[in-house]
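JOB MANIFEST
job_type = single_chain_structure
chain_count = 1
residues = 510
[input]
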Amino acid sequence: MDLLFCQTPQRKKAAIKALKDYLPHCRWFSSKSQSIVQLEFEEEIFLDPFRKELSLLFFRVIYDKGPEAQDLFLLPLQRKSLLEAQHSGREILFYCEDLGLCWIEATSNNDIGQLFLELIVQKKESKGRRGSIRGSCLQLVFNETDISFKKKGQFLGTEQSNSSYIFDQKFFFKLYRKLEAGENPESEILSYLTEKTTFGNIPSYLGKMELFLNGSKYVIGLLTKYVPNEGNGWKRAMSCLERYHKVAKESLSSSVLSHFPMETFPHDCFDLDAIYLGERTAELHLALSSAQGIEGFEPEPLQKTDLIMLFEEAIAQIDKKWINASANPWFQSILSQRNLSFQSLTERICQKLKEKITDLEEQSPYKIRIHGDFHLGQVLWTGSDYFIIDFEGEPNRSIDKRKMLWPALKDVAGMLRSFHYAAYSFFSPMDNPSKRILAAFWYSKIVEKYLDSYRKRVGSAPILPSTEQSFFALLDFFLIEKAVYEVGYELGSRPSWVPIPLLALLDLIE
């Protein structure tokens, strides 16, 4: 059975064209907005070398922004006869009439998930023509029953940059689709937390799958313990906001919602959740700050030059991602209501960010490894507690930038922005004033509970500024920086959501 990678030039050309046409329809292909100028097959490696039915294809996509603008992707493939492929109900990616074979995407095939698991647990190696895939795992005892899940494996689905599988409600496997050379931040952080600390509110690290190709190493899959859960923090926050809205409507008429008393805030409306989340966030940061002598993790004092770099990135975000702001009716309406022009807004953002840097006192907190993309979607509610997941970092940053040390308050700001999004997406900020007041009450109460529990659990650890002035100056800096990014994101992806981060940004700078 021929490799897709090394077919004749004519077949290879046809396969490349078919893949180019297929990519825009793939949820995991995160570069849909970019123009592809070239696609190259790098390697194909069979996961079942005897049957030669299931493989991983590694291909490079080169964009129109120059030779440096390129990404390496992974695609699970399955070979079938035309009749078998038609009966499978899956889209045929490529059909070779000469061979009588079809290639279909195999991501949702439970058999391939089983092969991933066996490769890691049994520390196998599969070789291709130029590279190899190797599995590795912690020195744990795996029984035969632990890896015999052929009938129990379950494909969960594909997110923006990865695909997931669970095995018998015990193990969770994440397959990364877009690959970068080097150690993956998620495998790095989870293995450290699992092996070196007592922090247990994470999916424990078990093993990984790596690609070795052209002298570089890529983490292509991660195996952890499965965390049984009732959904993520966003889902729970939405449920709590529904209860909160119901209580508010029953307690008061719409005419007096502006006088909604804080003491009537119900405890089952995310109040206790905010306390739990504050405690778990603090425990995560304390565990990450304990990495003395470990390369890439050891805490370092924060320098103001670190914040200047983020300041410059925020301004660059405005220049690159806000270019279509003039065409957004919500953006223009809000600026008009505030008597602001685009230029005066950006000038005020620059001024406020500089002020926050200046307000920091000389005794700065330590920088540590952080989650890096912390929000309600990255925590799981188990029914009694929260677990923190997805340590890949911000997807738009390079792997080196995702591994940088930052103040713990950068994560805290991410969670506060997520609380704000929850409140103001439930009660739209463009709705009537009564609903905006309800959103403001909920948000202020949740922030208060979260920050109180977080700061109490951190105590006197040097990962936070030692004075109130510096604490809130640094927190506000990260809140503004995050809101700038969010406005740019919404302008490009969800134009009608622009009011949520824009109104928050205006409140922060005014």
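[summary]
The chain has a mean pLDDT of 90.
DSSP finds 15 helices and 17 strands in the chain.
exit_status = 0
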